[in-house]
Amino acid sequence: MGSNRSWFIIWVIFYLSLSSCGHASNSSNPDALDAFIHDFAQKSLEKRPTGTLYKVPLPANFSGMDVSVVRLRSASFWKSGANFSSFGIPPSVLPMPYARRLAIVYQNLGNWSSYYYKVPGHTLVAPVVGFMAYDAPDLSALGNTMLLLSIQGEPISVRFSQIAVAEYANVTMKCVEFSAGGSVKLSNMTTPNVCIARGQGHFSIVIPTPPPPNKVSLWKWWVVGFGAGFVGLVLVGLFGIVIFKLVKRKKIKDMEKETEKSVAFDSIWIGLSRMPSATASRTQPDLENEYAP
Ligand SMILES: *[C@@H]1O[C@H](CO)[C@@H](O)[C@H](O)[C@H]1NC(C)=O
Ligand SMILES: *[C@@H]1O[C@H](CO)[C@@H](O)[C@H](O)[C@H]1NC(C)=O
Ligand SMILES: *[C@@H]1O[C@H](CO)[C@@H](O)[C@H](O)[C@H]1NC(C)=O
Ligand SMILES: *[C@@H]1O[C@H](CO)[C@@H](O)[C@H](O)[C@H]1NC(C)=O
Ligand SMILES: *[C@@H]1O[C@H](CO)[C@@H](O)[C@H](O)[C@H]1NC(C)=O
Ligand SMILES: *[C@@H]1O[C@H](CO)[C@@H](O)[C@H](O)[C@H]1NC(C)=O
């Protein structure tokens, strides 16, 4: 019993340490990435003409990500909107607080998307794209003030070109919006490959994750393994008990045999001598034995 309980405790500790290992994966913080990209874009924004989109050269270890920046005069942004990268920002969008010029930083996280962004129970089927607007106080700088876009009329459209719709034709794709602070909002996709945005943030497309066969079978194996282990333990325990009982029974039998022998001897002895007292008859051979050489 005691050993079974300690096995159980060992099992619990093992299981807990395993599951804590699983949760300890310190995933990448997307807000830190945004800050990093902002700083990088800020450094690279010098001497660039207003109104044209250009790529921000990222360090080599960010390979696979795509970041670009455009600087705009607020007047022209209001009049014509901004149609760059994956985002169609319609006219009549007001950046708040007011800035004479603004800079929009566009991100496409490419193969880094699922590294930074996850939707529980869903799989990303398009890269995560995002945009943020900042003030642009003078010709050569990207400011530090983030601007909020106040959208009254038509929303911003987010175009995704890198999904194969046919591949997912009979699953429902959903638009997902990641807002600051890690909140995730799912919505129906009304136009193929297009999502709707009402402000800056990060966007992608997800499908419900099919039950992962590998994980399930792994779990099954774990369960089977522990089950077999447990059964084995019980069997070992039963075997031990049986052995113990057999040994005990043999001992008892031997003792019984001994007593039978002595009883038989006694009765024979008694029969021969016809002594009336049993105590006397039993002590006598002992005494004799003691004096035997
Ligand atoms: C995870 O954390 C460990 C230390 O706790 C660190 O060495 C490692 O670089 C981190 N990984 C990521 C992807 O942030
Ligand atoms: C690239 O390296 C820098 C430090 O050199 C680090 O701060 C950054 O997180 C790395 N990028 C990625 C995507 O891990
Ligand atoms: C993305 O792809 C690039 C190469 O194109 C690679 O260097 C990078 O490690 C990949 N990132 C991830 C998270 O796999
Ligand atoms: C925005 O640009 C895309 C191509 O990048 C184009 O297909 C679309 O028609 C443009 N929209 C407007 C309103 O100009
Ligand atoms: C889509 O439907 C076809 C036919 O009904 C089926 O064979 C296929 O497995 C389905 N694909 C998905 C991803 O559900
Ligand atoms: C999303 O689509 C589902 C079915 O396709 C529908 O039942 C649901 O009402 C839709 N949600 C919204 C917010 O339109």
Task: Annotate the secondary structure layout.
Blueprint: H1 2-23, H2 30-44, E1 54-55, E2 66-73, H3 74-80, E3 82-84, E4 87-89, E5 93-96, E6 101-108, H4 113-116, E7 122-124, E8 129-135, E9 146-151, E10 156-159, E11 174-179, E12 183-188, E13 194-197, E14 201-208, H5 213-273, H6 278-290
Antiparallel strand pairs: 1-2, 2-6, 3-4, 4-10, 5-9, 6-8, 7-14, 8-9, 8-14, 10-13, 11-12, 11-14
One 2-acetamido-2-deoxy-beta-D-glucopyranose binds next to loops.
Structure description:
With 293 residues, the protein is α+β, with helices and mostly antiparallel strands. The chain is 42% helix and 25% strand. It has 6 helices and 14 strands. It has helices at 2-23, 30-44, 74-80, 113-116, 213-273, 278-290, and strands at 54-55, 66-73, 82-84, 87-89, 93-96, 101-108, 122-124, 129-135, 146-151, 156-159, 174-179, 183-188, 194-197, 201-208. The longest helix has 61 residues, at 213-273. The radius of gyration is 41 Å and the shape is elongated. InterPro entries: DUF1191. The chain crosses the membrane at residues 221-247. Pfam families: DUF1191. Keywords: Membrane, Signal, Transmembrane, Transmembrane helix.
